[in-house]
Amino acid sequence: MKQNVVSREYKVMLKAERFVGSQLALLEKARDFWNIFKDSIQDIVIDTDGSLNKVKKERIVRFYDSSEHRLRANNYVFRERVTLDTRKREVTLKYRHPDRYISQDRELTAADVKKGKTKFEEDIKLPFTKLYSFSTKQRISENKSLNKLKDIGELYPALKKQLKVAQANDSIDIVGNFTAREVIIAGADFQIGKSPKMEAECVLVVWYDEAVEEEKPVVVEFSFKYANEREEYDGKAAQRAYDVFGRFNDILAEWVDFEGPTKTAYVYSRS
C-alpha cells in the first residue's frame, strides 16, 4: 500500500567540539550557530523566526539488538527513549531503506494498535543521500522487559515473520553498551513556502555519554524538517530547502563534521 511521505527531514552532523561546556554555554553556542546559519540563508528563504534558544526535551536513549545485530542487518533499528522528568518509556521500531517501495512494504503495527503511532518519512543527509524511514512508536510500561528479540516481537507482531524461530530467542542487549543523554534544543524555523505557507522546523540534537560525567558531547546533529500529511510538496519550497541544505557544503562547511557518523551509526560503531 502506498504510504504518504509525511515529512522530509534534512540532517547534518556538526563538529561536537564546538558545543563543549555547561548547558548554559551549550545554549549560547546553539544561538551563535543559529545566527550564522540564519545569515547564510537570507537570500534563499522567505523568512526566519526565533532562535535555537530553549531546551525542548531531555531524555535517555538506548538501542537494542542481538549480538549478531540481526535487526540492523535487516535494516531495522529498535530504540528506547526515557523522558528524564516523567521517566515515561517509549520505544520505536524503524525500518530504513534507500528504495521507497521497499521501505513502505512493511508491517510495523503495534500489538495494541491504539498505542502505536506510525509514520513514513524521508531522511536526507549530505551531500544529498536519501533514506525512507517507516516507523511505529509506542509507550511501554515501566516493568516491560527487553531481554530477547521475541520481546520486541510481542510489541510488533509482524516482526516475528522476519525472524526465524531460533532467532526470536536470541538475547538482546543495549547496543555498544552505550546510553545517550539527549538534549534537544529548539525554538527556530524558516519559511520556504508562501501558498500554502510552509515552514521548516529546526532542532539541534546533542548526545552525551551517560556513563561519563563530562560536559562534552559525543554527537551533535542539526536538522530541519517540513511536513505535509498528504505529501503535497511544492517544487519551489523543495528547491529552497535543497538550496539551504547546500549551504553546509560551502558557507557553513566549517561547522560540519563531514566524516562524523549519524547517531545510529555512532551507537553501532561502539559494539
Brief summary of the model shown:
The protein is α+β, with helices and mostly antiparallel strands and 271 residues long.
Description:
The protein is α+β, with helices and mostly antiparallel strands. It has one domain: Hypothetical Protein Pfu-838710-001 (Beta Barrel), CATH 2.40.320.10. It contains 8 helices and 10 strands. The mean pLDDT is 96.
Rounded to an integer in angstroms, the radius of gyration calculated over CA atoms is 19 Å
The pLDDT mean sits at 96
Order of helices and strands: EHEHEEHEEHHHEEEEHH
Structural class: alpha+beta
Which keywords apply here?
271 residues; Hypothetical Protein Pfu-838710-001
Question: How does the SSE layout of this entry go?
Answer:
Layout: E1 7-14, H1 23-40, E2 47-66, H2 70-73, E3 76-83, E4 89-97, H3 100-104, E5 117-125, E6 129-140, H4 149-155, H5 159-162, H6 165-168, E7 172-174, E8 180-194, E9 197-209, E10 219-227, H7 235-246, H8 263-269
Parallel strand pairs: 1-5
Antiparallel strand pairs: 1-10, 2-3, 2-7, 2-8, 3-4, 4-6, 5-6, 8-9, 9-10
